[in-house]
Every structure is written in C-alpha cells, then in structure tokens.
Amino acid sequence: MNSFKQPFYSSVNVESNFDAVIIGAGHNGLTCAAYLAGAGLSVKVLERRPMVGGAAVTEEFHPGFSNSVYSYSISLLNPKVIRDLALERHGLMIMERPAGTISLLDQDHLLLTRDSDQARQEIARFSTEDAKRIDAFEDQISRVALAMREIAMAAPPDFGGGLRDLINLAMAGNTFRRLSSSDQAVLAELMTKSLGDYLDGWFEGTALKGILGLEGVIGNYADPYHPGTAYVLLHHAFGEVNGRTGAWGIAKGGMGAISQALSACAIERGVKIETSAGVEKVIVENGKARGVVTEDDREIRAKVVSANVHPQTLLMKFIDPNLLDDDTHRRISQYRSHSATFRMNVALSELPKFSSVPGDDESHFKGAIEICPSLAYMSTAYREASESGWSSKPVISMQVPTTQDDSLAPEGQHVASLFCQHFQRHLPDGSSWDDVKETVADLIIDNVNSYAPNFRASILGRQIKSPLDIERDLGMIGGDIFHGTLHLDQLYSMRPIPGYAAYRMPAENLYLCGSGAHPGGGVTGLPGHHAARQIIKDRRRWS
In CATH, what number is assigned to the domain containing residue 274? Predict the structure, then answer.
C-alpha cells in the first residue's frame, strides 16, 4: 500500500458555502455542475487548465486557423443532455456530415454515401454478395445499438448493492428481454467476439471490412482479432445527430462550442467556475469527502465532491490510498488505460487532391476520409506499434470541417483533423515522445501524401498531440481518450472497477463523473448526467 501524507488544512483561505465542488471542467464536469445547479445546489467547479472544456476545445493553432484540438466529431452527445441544458439556446449548432465515408485504397477508393442505393452499387464493385448483405448488417447493428443506448441511459448495478442496484439490474434485464432471441445472440457476439471475426462472418470484401472496422479501432489499442474488440464498433453506433441514429456531425466553431454552451448553461444556473485552479487533494474526514485542497493551498469546503478526472488519478492521487482495501487497490493499479492515439491538425492552402478521385469532385470532404484499407492493414499497424512504438502505416481518419464551417480558416483555405492509430503509450526503447513526435508527424503526412500528392506542399502549419501530450494536457493517463480501455472487463458494472460502478467512490459523498464511469468515453455527457442524478438521490446522506 502506498504511503500518504495527510495534508495540513489551515483555516486561512477557506471557502465553505458550496453544496458541491467539481474537479475538472471537461464536458462531463460541466454537465454534472449544470444538472446539480438546476436542482438547486450551490456548485463550484475547479479546472486545472486556463480554459474549460477538457478534450472538447477549439484553439487557433496557426495564425487565422482554428480547429478542435482533441475530440473532433459529434455523434454520442446525448439528446437528453442537449435538451435538458438548452445547449442550442446557448449557442451550440450541430451540422450533420452529409457525405458518408470514403476509404482510400491503392489506386482506388470505396465511397459510401448516405444514399443506400449508391452504397450498394459501390460495394458491388468489390463483392456482389456483400452488397446484398449490407442492409441486413446495418439494420442488425442499429437494433442492438438502440438497446445499448437504453442501457447507457441508466446507472449500472453495483456488486453487493442494495435495492436501487437490484432495480437497475431488473431494468437492464427488461431491455435485453425486449430484443428478439436473434438480436440477443448478436449482442452477446458483439460483447465477446473480435472485430475481425465478427466482420469476417458477414463480408468477403477486404475494403468493406476495413471501412467498417475503423470504428472498432478508434481509441482501441488492440489487434482487430483480439476477443472483445467488436464492442467498440457498437459503442460508436448508438449515437445520433439531429434525430438520425448512427449519424455523425461537427459543431460549428469546433468542439469547443459544446463546452462553451455547457459553461454558459452552468453559469446561468449559478455555478461558479474557476480556471487555472488545479486540485491537490480531496479532503476526507471520518470517511466522508468534505471538499478539496487546491494546488495553491486553498481549501474549498463542500458537502459533496464530484471528480471529472481519470479514475486512477482520483483513487491513487487525490485520496488517501489507505481508504482502499487491498483488492480495490490492486484493481485500480491494474486498470488498463492506453488508447494509442496520435492527433494532428493541419492548416491547408488547398484541399487534398486524391489520386483516385476525379479532380472536380469535392463532395467527399463533407464526410470522413479513411486510410484503413483492410483488417490486415489494421493488424499490421498494431503489430508494428507493439514492436517499435508506432506504425509506419497507421490507421488514419481525416476530416475537413472547413468544407462545412468556413469560420475556422481564411477564405479559400482549410483545416484538417487527423486521428491516427497505433502509437504506444510508452516507447519500447525508453525514448520520449517529445523527441520523436515531429518525425512521426512527418511519417503520417507522408502516408496521406501517398494518396494525395499535393498534401505535403499544401500544409501551412500543424499542431501535434502525441500520447504523452494528451496525458500531460488533459490528465488522460496513457493518453487514453476514453479514460480507460472499453473492453468487457472494464464496462458496465465493472467500470471503472467492481464495487464502484454506480458513481460512488470509496469515501462517502465522493463521486466519479468522468468517462472512467459508465457508459464510458466519447463526448456523451452521460457520466456527468448520471453522477449528478446519483448525487441528487443521495442528498439525505450528506450529513
């Protein structure tokens, strides 16, 4: 067990008039704060960084060019959160990506638009059998995803819990029972099978399996044939944009617009938000959280503490490890947090000109552009990263938001987001990402340039975020964009660890409201929503 020196709490610089203090002004922390304030609680939010938003921020990264720095697309932001917190009234505008997805291949491409007839015809170029099966595949995924969305909307039952947990378990059981026996089997497959085996069971075309498989590798450091990897495909499928299930979109002004709308709602409801105010420790007295101590030695007293931080940060840094029993300490120490993600934004003088696409066709830029031509490509990327630290031919998902939102760049110019896999958290030779990230960024640009020969020459500036940068900037241990791997043993009642799935942490009146809690990562707002709901239910316990 780690040693822990109890901090000295002075009576100087004490604030003590809050019902709740929230650590971290990422989107889940802001969501939690807004809901608590809406229930009549006095709330203080403390954010280590100089701006709110966490991973959902927009920054100018090159003179005149701005973009979403970390997260970059919207699908999972829950409609209930949007509605309850009046985010559209507070300035949020979500624009659906109308163009579908283009997968770049060697001297060819696979373009799947929103037009189902077009998609079937395009798939048939590679496999007529796959063209016959695609509708049934998408219908099946959609049905199961809707059930998972319902599960995501409720707190999971905790091991050894009471009546409320039994009720939650019964509600989840009812959701599963409403599925047909066939769809129940599909859900079991998606929760346990590998992504590769699942897609191989449906399709024969390598390009189609590559384009579908990319969703399963986003933020998921694993070989596509590793058991359990199919779930991430499902996790990304239960979102919606403007009422369209499974659709993706962008926020006008970048992902920071989400955080700004949440912040505006919270402030309107009376929340006090303080930036550049990192937290050092959670105050625990007689087994109950009673506030926090900031990095500048201020004491913020409150009846409840809710933490929008990585679970390991909360349980291994912010509280006394002696509050954890041996099993809990072992489990949180072994919590897997490693998404192998490398992010880059580039300022462009012109749009990329892909060799396989006619020069006058730019419609695909209003969708996703992928370099993930096959499952074998994904496996090679994983294997190379495991051996040498990064892939020489990474999986790349590109988006050019300026084709829909011209506020992000000067007229006639563009910004592009590049989300790339796989890049190890710790480099095998012991070197630092600070020493190699420019070289790796060049490698990524070379890969895109092999499909669009004008790409490198069009770059005016770039912003690079290695796994180490993501960890340092956002406190996401291992640079994990989901605050912990989304595998079966870290989901639902197992998230973050058994015994602490229902947002309540080892000390009374201490809660986890970040993506390390159910239903996991992505810009959903649901961990913040669910934690706030639990806090409000527990009001009688605050004494």
Answer: 3.50.50.60
